[in-house]
Design goal:
The structure holds two protein chains of two kinds.
Chain A (H helix, E strand, L loop, with lengths): L1 H6 L5 E2 L3 H4 L7 E2 L3 E6 L2 H14 L4 E4 L6 H6 L7 E4 L5 H14 L2 E4 L7 H14 L2 E6 L5 H5 L5 E11 L10 E9 L7 E7 L2
Parallel strand pairs in A: 3-7, 3-8, 4-5, 4-6, 6-7
Antiparallel strand pairs in A: 1-2, 8-9, 9-10
Helix pairs in contact in A: 5-6
Chain B lengths: L1 H9 L15 E7 L2 H6 L7 E5 L2 E5 L1 H5 L8 H7 L4 E4 L2 H18 L4 E4 L2 E5 L1 H7 L2 H18 L8 E7 L1 H14 L3 E2 L5 H6 L4 H5 L5 H9 L5 H6 L2 H8 L1 H10 L18 E9 L2 H21 L2 E12 L4 E7 L6 H17 L7 E13 L13 H17 L4 E6 L9 E5 L8 H5 L17 E13 L17 E6 L7 E14 L8 E12 L2 E10 L2 E7 L2
Parallel strand pairs in B: 2-4, 7-8
Antiparallel strand pairs in B: 1-6, 1-7, 2-3, 5-6, 9-12, 10-11, 10-12, 13-14, 15-16, 15-20, 16-17, 17-18, 18-19, 19-20
Helix pairs in contact in B: 5-7, 6-7, 13-14, 15-16, 15-17
Chain lengths: 201, 554
């Protein structure tokens, strides 16, 4: 595996769509990094982050994310033929073995970290992500699991807060898009920034 | 390695190395009509149809009598026959329920090929010598299959037939006509080409695997029978139809669709794995099969050929063995080979004759054809990323079970949670995913407007929606709200209520109003709710007087 990696060096980053480029640091997804998405648009933003890369041939594994709607993934532009959903066991060691095996084969991983995963298991997965040069996106869409995901020391943290929904009007219309405040911070972001983004979905 | 090939040829099946490209193998076909519907229906005399992507793909004879036809839309079929029981297409179920019939036939003929559930194919040379002629063999098989169907609990409703002829096409046609008459059909040696002459070209579509458009074009060109096609030279057909012309020429002369390769096979084409310690888990065998299939396909691809028929043998420590031949006219990819090993392994376990662990697994290409280089990607075939991902899928499935690694497949529906079903990733052919995930472009009536919420709950959460005065919100028979929604709170917890900022809808759904047990009537609303400094958009649905939180824009 290592020799084949050396033979065909991978490009150091994956493409993102124009809408995402406006707020993601350095305008692209950099391999080997961990991005954490939190707040009330976490999953939707995570799907938008990876959509362009799946269109261009990268495989996406969604690991342990409950209740994800496939139709929403389609609408964000994810190439479904390269999407695989994995439901890993919740027990710490088994979880890390499974996720490490997933990381081996996929460029992009969207995952939720279950409660009670030990720091050493997290470190093991993190090391594998860096060695294999994958990109992990950790989604916290509810309060559970926040602590475990912080153990990852994410390179980029995207915290989303919806400021306004546009569309419904006391019985008329329908939801069309929303204005999301994205606070960008993290280990690799020297100066935290804040963006207001018009986000669909 | 020489020994390996010799070993393979000693089974009566293989005629490959000696055959010239036009010689035709004598083949027997056992055909059970509409197997999917038979497998899905539980009692005789039932009106049953199997639906895939909203089209009927198989139905029981009783349903055919009631006016249901293959290819109908689900709605049309229900219109033609309101009592029709409809089930979803489950290839695994078909395969599993066909297994008793296959094992009964294997008692008579050791090595058979199951190309699809409901069809068994094998070469008759050895078996018919043993039985004393094709007629005796056909009669024996007919009795065996009849008994097997009866003892498997499948009753007289199923039509089945046995056909023996030269070449796959004629044997399949003979089996089908035998299913109609109820007696085995044997076409004498050398008569098959003559028997084909009178047949209409539509059999090429039904049985031969030629695309419907091509067959329809033949009809419009005035070539109504196979005899008329056979009179044309191969060059003429290729000039008009391209590569398909070659296939038409071969089929109309009673040959197989693709010429088998007559050259001596490359020496190390049989792949074999000996397990050092007997293996009890079928997942491990499947994982090894993946490695073997990779080596095999790699080797074949470098030689410019592909495998259309694969011989698989699994041996246990106590000497039980399972031998099968698998055929796929488009050629077997790595994923397809692994899938077939898994099926065979499942069948082996289901027979209950297995008393010890598996010690040896062997894959050997049994029939090859030239790789016409179906170009999938810029550099041909599969990218590095595809390969890595497929390897990881096999590995993770072996680790945590194949039901925990799933891929979506389109099935359609008006709720965001219904549009896709999740199927096990190892049992799907990942190289054909594009067709499985693509739905038709039209939208469903009653669909919610886009964007779709990212979180859809499998089990909706009970909530209480009230109006300004604290009265429960209702929807009238004309789908109008009793008042504007004002608050929402979870029914289970005593948490503070959310205030409704804004709302849209309702979008009513009335499903299956003609069926008292399965009817559904609900109304859906989009709500923007707020509590403290959080604002969320959700979808709530009212059914049987109770509001449910079904999705969140997460």
């Amino acid at each position: 595996m290592l020799t084949s990696l050396a033979d065909h060096p991978k490009p150091s980053h994956l493409p993102v769509s124009d809408a995402v480029r406006s707020f993601i640091p350095e305008g692209q997804l950099i391999r080997g990094r961990v991005v954490a998405c939190s707040g009330d648009a976490a999953l939707s933003v995570a799907l938008s982050l990876v959509a362009q890369a799946t269109q261009e041939g990268s495989w996406l594994a969604v690991v342990g994310v409950q209740h994800i709607a496939i139709l929403a993934a389609v609408e964000r532009g994810i190439a479904l033929e390269r999407l695989v959903l994995v439901h890993p066991p919740q027990q710490s060691t088994e979880w890390s073995t499974t996720v490490a095996a997933v990381v081996d084969g996929f460029d992009l991983i969207i995952m939720s970290v279950p409660r009670g995963v030990s720091p050493s298991d997290i470190r093991r997965v993190h090391t594998r992500i860096q060695a294999r040069q994958s990109i992990a996106i950790i989604v916290n869409n509810d309060s559970s699991g926040i602590k475990s995901s912080q153990l990852f020391h994410p390179d980029v943290v995207l915290h989303t807060t919806t400021s306004q929904w546009v569309g419904p009007d006391q019985g008329a219309g329908f939801l069309q898009h929303r204005d999301v405040r994205v606070q960008v911070s993290g280990r690799r972001v020297p100066r935290p920034t804040e963006h207001i983004v018009r986000h669909i979905g | 390695m020489d020994g390996e090939c010799h070993d393979l040829q000693s089974t009566s099946f293989v005629t490959l190395a000696s055959s010239s490209s036009n010689s035709v193998t004598r083949v027997a076909v056992i055909y059970c009509a509409d197997w999917s519907a038979v497998a899905a229906s539980d009692s005789s005399g039932s009106l049953h149809a199997v639906v895939h992507a909203q089209r009927v793909i198989s139905c029981t004879p009783q349903a055919t009598v009631a006016g249901v036809r293959i290819g109908m839309r689900r709605r049309e079929a229900q219109g033609a026959c309101p009592q029709l029981v409809i089930s979803v297409h489950q290839p695994e179920r078909d395969r599993r329920s066909f297994e008793p019939i296959v094992s009964a036939v294997v008692e008579v003929v050791p090595l058979v090929e199951v190309s699809e559930p409901g069809v068994i194919v094998f070469a008759t040379r050895g078996p018919s010598r043993y039985m004393g002629g094709d007629d005796a063999l056909a009669a024996k098989l007919h009795a065996v299959v009849g008994d097997a169907l009866a003892s498997a609990g499948v009753t007289a409703g199923v039509r089945f037939g046995v056909g023996i002829a030269d070449g796959r096409l004629m044997a399949s046609i003979a089996a089908r006509s035998s299913a109609h008459t109820g007696a085995p059909v044997v076409v004498p040696v050398g008569d098959s080409e003559q028997a084909l002459v009178e047949l209409p070209v539509s059999v090429l579509d039904d049985v031969g695997g030629i695309q419907r458009e091509v067959v329809s074009l033949l009809e419009r060109l005035g070539l109504a029978t196979l005899g008329a096609v056979a009179e044309l030279s191969a060059a003429t057909l290729v000039a008009r139809f391209g590569p398909v012309g070659q296939e038409l020429h071969r089929l109309s002369h009673g040959c197989d669709q693709h010429p088998p390769i007559a050259i001596a096979p490359p020496p190390d084409r049989a792949c074999r794995h000996i397990f050092e310690t007997p293996v009890e888990q079928s997942a491990v065998v499947v994982a090894v099969a993946h490695e073997l299939a990779e080596q095999l396909v790699d080797h074949l691809t470098t030689n410019g050929v592909m495998c259309v028929r694969l011989y698989v043998r699994i041996e246990s420590e106590n000497g039980e063995r399972s031998e099968r031949v698998w055929y796929r006219v488009e050629g077997l990819s790595i994923a397809a080979m692994v899938e077939r090993v898994r099926w065979q392994m499942d069948a082996f376990i289901a027979q209950n004759t297995l008393t010890s662990g598996i010690v040896a697994l062997r894959l050997a290409p049994d029939q090859l054809r030239h790789n016409e280089g179906k170009q999938l990607d810029l550099w041909g075939g599969v990218t590095q990323a595809d390969e890595w991902a497929q390897r990881a899928i096999t590995r993770v499935s072996a680790l945590i079970g194949s039901e925990s690694v799933v891929v979506p497949e389109w099935c359609g529906g008006r709720d965001p949670g219904q549009a896709f079903v999740l199927v096990s990733a190892v049992s799907t052919d990942l190289e054909r995913r594009k067709e499985q995930v693509a739905g038709p472009q039209q939208s469903w009536c009653g669909e919610l407007p886009t964007p779709t919420p990212a979180l859809v709950y499998d089990e909706p959460i009970a909530v209480i929606v009230q109006d300004d005065e604290g009265k429960p919100l209702l929807v009238t028979g004309r789908h109008e709200l009793s008042a504007s929604p004002a608050t929402l709170r979870m029914a289970s917890a005593n948490a503070a209520p959310y205030a409704v900022v804004s709302w849209a809808g309702p979008w009513p759904v009335e499903e299956r109003w003609w069926d008292p047990t399965r009817r559904r009537r609900l109304a859906r609303l989009q709500l923007v709710i707020t509590r403290g400094d959080t604002t969320r958009a959700v979808i709530v649905a009212l059914e049987h007087g109770q509001w449910w939180l079904t999705a969140t824009y997460g």
